[in-house]
Specification:
The protein is mostly beta strands. It folds into two domains: 306 residues, Tachylectin-2, Chain A (5 Propeller); 178 residues, Exo-inulinase, domain 1 (Jelly Rolls, Sandwich), CATH 2.60.120. It is built from no helices and 36 strands.
Length: 504
């Protein structure tokens, strides 16, 4: 189901919907040269099953070409040629000669979507020296190149106009240099007008891989940043180190402004969820990103992008139900008695209890104890969902992982104010995020363990995602910490993996 690069690492990807088939180009690492190699090409009609095509856009090695250094992240757009009447695919990408003082935007054109010819008069965009600067004068920043990269092109039919956005760096009013998003327009995708700045936040340093799209009448900008990019202050969850933030505007001209209270679309700690790009398919906008999983970098499962209560959110997609192989447990059958697994003191001691009552499970522990219990449900890949009501420090799912070297247990903890993935017995936090969770309220919780990754959805919204070693087998369980919890409508599914012939 998930897509792996044939060279071992899949990096930034960008997408184009052509008559119901989504095509994706993606960067891949040539491990022998330790450099970016050919650009990979795959396509899909459902965003789950992908077909591999011939690689495109190989690096041009030579002293007399600006493509010498490598090709970096780009975008695709379909354009009707006025002269031939044929539809052509324009692929913009980041280019830089090792001797150049700035990144530039290059162009390659395809008539069949399979082979691309580099435009003879590249680059088509060079950063305006009056607007954009390098980070070279910032202490301990080893980067003296003027940013001009990661283009994204949007066509606005009302104007018959193309908008191109790219990453840059600019001098701010406070005298500091920081990340910015530039915008430029064109009628023909060849000749571009005056460059302007549409986004220049004070809290973000270097930024990466923007995406721009219209949703529910507003324009949205998403971009990757994080602590490693000097994005620290002004982030709505300071416990994250890597995140994709979003900003919005009433116009494609900007300016794009952030909601400082809830500005994070995807967040984590260097393991997953970046970089993000989206594509529309069958009237729905889907978010895709690169999973940094235990099996190597892979293309994520699709998420739906929607606006809820004024926030841009990534939601569980009904497409993922196609992954279900069998229902292993549901309320329609007599619920089995779980086997106590852990307490805070020792294995298999009585510090609390988790038990079935009618069509629900109840968990009871005292103020000093927690409990986890295993269910007689096993699978290689698994999905668990329930309606959770908690009056406790935390409650959720437990999963026992069988690996070559033995067994280990993990806890998916839903807590007042946050969600966490914990490793037992140390209770080390593998991933976590702030969340508006209150005691006594009911929440729909869904956890997926699939092909080296973990995903947690709360009321349909994706809150956690990270690499997860699913091992040889998973066994499902429930968990409660210092209090009580109720699990209604518990369902557990095995997930099918039929991508053996699709590994790229």
């Amino acid at each position: 189901m998930k897509v792996h690069s044939p060279l071992g690492n899949m990096h930034d990807a960008w997408y184009l919907n052509l008559e119901g088939t989504v095509h994706a180009l993606y960067l891949q690492l040539n491990q022998e040269e330790n450099a970016l190699g050919n650009v990979g090409h795959i396509s899909s009609t459902d965003l789950l099953h992908w077909e591999r095509h011939t690689d495109v856009l190989p690096p041009l090695r030579g002293e007399n070409t600006e493509d010498y250094h490598e090709k970096f992240t780009g975008c695709m757009v379909a354009h009707q040629d006025n002269f031939s009447g044929k539809q052509k695919i324009f692929c913009f990408y980041t280019m830089r000669d090792e001797k150049a003082a700035s990144q530039r935007i290059g162009l390659a054109i395809s008539e069949d979507g399979e082979s691309f010819t580099t435009y003879s008069d590249n680059p088509v965009i060079i950063p305006d020296p009056e607007l954009f600067v390098s980070y070279g004068n910032i202490a301990d920043y080893d980067w003296d190149i003027v940013d001009c990269r990661d283009p994204i092109v949007v066509y606005r039919q009302e104007e018959d106009l193309y908008y191109l956005y790219f990453v840059a760096a600019a001098m701010r009013q406070d005298g500091r240099i920081g990340g910015a998003i530039a915008m430029v327009t064109s009628k023909d995708l060849i000749h571009w007008g005056k460059q302007t700045i549409v986004y220049s936040p004070r809290q973000n340093g270097m930024i990466e891989v923007p995406d721009v799209f219209q949703l529910d009448g507003k324009w949205y900008l998403t971009l990757l940043t994080g602590v490693n990019y000097r994005g620290r202050g002004g982030i709505s969850d300071d416990g994250l180190s890597n995140f994709t933030v979003y900003a919005s505007s009433d116009s494609p001209h900007g300016p794009f402004e952030e909601d400082r209270v809830n500005n994070i679309l995807i967040g984590g700690n260097f393991q997953s969820g970046s970089p993000c790009r989206s594509v529309e398919l069958d009237g729905v906008r889907y978010l895709l990103y690169i999973d940094r999983s235990f099996g190597g970098n892979t293309l994520s499962l699709p998420k739906e992008l929607r606006v809820e209560n004024g926030q841009l959110v990534a939601l569980y997609s009904s497409k993922l139900k196609d992954l279900r192989d069998a229902c292993l447990l549901s309320e329609e059958e007599q619920l089995p008695q779980p086997k106590l697994l852990y307490t805070s003191f020792a294995w298999h001691t009585i510090g609390g209890k988790i038990y079935p009552n009618g069509k629900s499970y109840f968990a009871v522990t005292d103020e000093l104890d927690y409990q986890a219990a295993l269910l007689p449900v096993k699978a290689v890949f698994m999905e668990m969902e329930t309606e959770l009501t908690l009056s406790a420090e935390g409650a959720g799912f437990a999963v026992l992982v069988t690996k070559e070297q033995g067994e280990c247990c993990y806890l998916v903890s839903i807590e007042p104010g946050q969600v966490q993935l914990l490793e037992h017995v140390s209770f080390a936090r593998l991933e976590g995020r702030k969340a508006e969770i209150k005691e006594g309220e009911k929440y729909h919780c869904r956890a997926l363990f699939f092909e080296g990754t973990f995903e947690l959805y709360l009321n349909g919204r994706l809150l956690l995602q990270c690499g997860f070693d699913t091992g040889k087998e998973l066994q499902a369980g429930l968990y409660c910490d210092r209090g009580t919890a109720r699990f209604d409508n518990l369902r557990i599914y095995s997930l099918i993996n039929d991508r053996k012939d699709e590994v790229l």
